[in-house]
């Protein structure tokens, strides 16, 4: 769905940014443990701050401690803080520009990154916030921390309706929505019985075929020809 696609793309692009720009995001394990504790707080995405590396690239000698960490909000981690920390999303767009990403893919990346930014800023609810809102606003809920059966049932039905594209939930996804699922849109592809082992020649041909998709006109695996773009 749209949300999973956005976060999956974000993680993949951050990994490519780290490799392409030679960045370091290491922080002490004690800080990681502290971040994990803070992340379990209610509404942590907007109310908590997390330890993050102050300088992702090697700083000038005059800056001081190259491995310094400081507390940042999720929004600051994503969009930047001060003049010394550019933020992950601006770095992603710098990377996409560096590899000469095509306009159509770049526009889809903007949609994904804007969605994540709005989640971090509190403009859109997280999944946990949205589910709590559904429960606490249900007529049968008595605000006693006990979730009646009909409330749980209606919550599950609401989740399924959003996931299948039958309901547009602006509090959760903003202007984006999931394309309705239809059984007549499914591809009929009968699967072969996995009773035979793929022999070496066939395996090498398969690998060569798929490898060529990423080393064609776009260069040596730079991702400009990735066939992974799918409609929302």
TrEMBL record:
Name recorded for this polypeptide: Glutamate--cysteine ligase
Keywords, sorted A to Z: ATP-binding, Glutathione biosynthesis, Ligase, Membrane, Nucleotide-binding, Transmembrane, Transmembrane helix
EC number(s) stated in the UniProt entry for this protein: 6.3.2.2
Similarity annotation: Belongs to the glutamate--cysteine ligase type 3 family.
Top EC class, one word: ligase
InterPro entries named among the record's database cross-references: GCS, Gln_synth/guanido_kin_cat_dom
Pathway recorded for this protein: Sulfur metabolism; glutathione biosynthesis; glutathione from L-cysteine and L-glutamate: step 1/2
Residue ranges of the region described as Disordered: 213-232
Record-annotated membrane-spanning stretches: 6-29
GO BP term, example: glutathione biosynthetic process
Catalytic activity: L-cysteine + L-glutamate + ATP = gamma-L-glutamyl-L-cysteine + ADP + phosphate + H(+)
Pfam family membership, one: GCS
GO molecular-function term, one example from the UniProt record: ATP binding
Start-end of Acidic residues biased regions: 223-232
């Amino acid at each position: 769905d749209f949300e999973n696609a956005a976060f999956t793309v974000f993680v993949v692009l951050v990994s490519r940014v780290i490799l392409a720009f030679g960045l370091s995001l290491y922080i002490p394990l004690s800080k990681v443990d502290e971040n994990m504790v803070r992340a379990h707080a209610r509404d942590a995405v907007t109310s908590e701050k997390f330890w993050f590396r102050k300088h992702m690239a090697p700083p000038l000698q005059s800056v001081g401690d190259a491995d310094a960490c400081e507390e940042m909000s999720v929004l600051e981690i994503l969009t930047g803080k001060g003049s010394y920390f550019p933020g992950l999303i601006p770095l992603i767009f710098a990377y996409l520009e560096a590899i000469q990403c095509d306009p159509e893919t770049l526009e889809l990346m903007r949609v994904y990154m804007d969605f994540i930014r709005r989640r971090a800023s509190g403009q859109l609810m997280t999944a946990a916030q949205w589910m709590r809102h559904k429960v606490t606003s249900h007529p049968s809920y008595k605000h006693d921390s006990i979730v009646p059966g009909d409330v749980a049932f209606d919550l599950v039905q609401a989740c399924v309706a959003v996931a299948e594209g039958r309901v547009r939930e602006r509090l959760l996804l903003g202007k984006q929505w999931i394309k309705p699922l239809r059984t007549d849109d499914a591809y009929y592809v009968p699967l072969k019985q996995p009773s035979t082992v793929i022999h070496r020649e066939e395996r090498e041909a398969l690998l060569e075929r798929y490898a060529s998709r990423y080393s064609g006109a776009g260069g040596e695996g730079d991702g400009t020809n990735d066939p992974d773009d799918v409609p929302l």
